[in-house]
Design a protein that fits this description.
By secondary structure, the chain is mostly helical. The chain contains 7 helices and no strands. Helix 3 crosses helix 4. It starts with a helix and ends with a helix.
Length: 107
């Protein structure tokens, strides 16, 4: 229940606020595990069956970009313009997604 609210619009804001979010994520893990001191993040994530933050963010970004690329509207055109801008945080994810779609179409 917490994760969908935390990752709402994450592809847009997450790269800029990752340091703040890591601290918040550690507090969430402490509460969920019931630990008194800061447990090792990786061990807590394994015990709770939660993927690491960067994996969650990548998955959400891929879902977001997939949804945009499959719809034919103004947002698709804007996203394709952003692909060629060197300063966007979604550029790498978009390139990987387009390679995957091209690979899938060849099969």
């Amino acid at each position: 229940m917490i994760l969908p609210k935390m990752f709402y619009a994450a592809p847009i804001w997450f790269p800029k606020c990752i340091d703040i979010f890591k601290g918040f994520w550690n507090k969430v893990l402490m509460k969920l595990t019931g630990a008194i001191l800061n447990p090792q993040r990786e061990l807590s994530e394994i015990a709770l069956h939660l993927p690491p933050l960067n994996v969650q963010w990548e998955a959400i970004t891929v879902k977001f970009l997939s949804k945009i690329l499959t719809q034919n509207d103004n947002l698709t055109a804007t996203l394709l313009q952003l692909e060629y801008s060197p300063h966007t945080s979604q550029r790498r994810s978009l390139t990987l997604l387009k390679q995957f779609i091209a690979w899938k179409d060849r099969k």
